[in-house]
Amino acid sequence: MKRVLLVVFSVFLPVVFAFGAPSDKQRNAIAEKLYGSIYITEFSGLADFSVYITEFSGLADLSVSIQEFSGLANSPGKWHIEENSGLADFSIYITEFSGLADLIVYIENPEAFPCHN
């Protein structure tokens, strides 16, 4: 039984890691499109994108400024946090693991971000 499990993991585990994280080119394409009203979901399966929040701007794919009004979130890096998922342009899931994220984000004004610690 142990040998069968070992074979299954040794065959499928590299496949999982190979398709897990997007390439730099894919991250840049996502960063260019991700602006506007953003809804933060607690369920990764309901999100358009998974996002890792970093404290270091040099590690980020995108620096984000949280806007108070949705009309101001009209270019890459500008987000308005929407509380109603039906009114949001995108939904994101915040992951604790950068390797599982579609995008690594630095929040320029963390006091305006609802998940601010």
Could you characterize the architecture of this molecule?
The chain has 117 residues and is an alpha/beta fold. Helices cover 25% and strands 26% of the residues. The protein contains 2 helices and 6 strands; from the N terminus they run H-H-E-E-E-E-E-E. It has helices at residues 2-20, 24-33, and strands spanning 36-41, 49-54, 62-66, 78-81, 90-94, 103-107. It is globular. The protein starts with a helix and ends in a 10-residue tail after the last strand.
Q: What structural category do the secondary elements indicate?
A: alpha/beta
What letter string, H or E per element, gives the SSE order? HHEEEEEE
Give the number of DSSP strands.
Answer: 6
> Beta-strand percentage?
25-35%
Provide the residue-averaged pLDDT.
82
- By DSSP (H or I, 4+ residues per run), the number of helices equals 2
Determine Rg (CA atoms, Å): 17 Å
- Major sheet details: 6 strands, parallel, barrel
Largest sheet strand order: 1-4-3-6-2-5
Shape: globular
Calculate the terminal CA-CA distance, rounded to whole Å. Answer: 45 Å
Oligomer: single chain
**Low-pLDDT stretches:** 1-18
Helix content: 10-25%
Task: Write a short abstract of this structure.
The chain has 117 residues and is of the alpha/beta class. The chain has helices at residues 2-20, 24-33; strands at residues 36-41, 49-54, 62-66, 78-81, 90-94, 103-107. The longest helix is centred in the N-terminal third of the chain and has 19 residues, at 2-20.
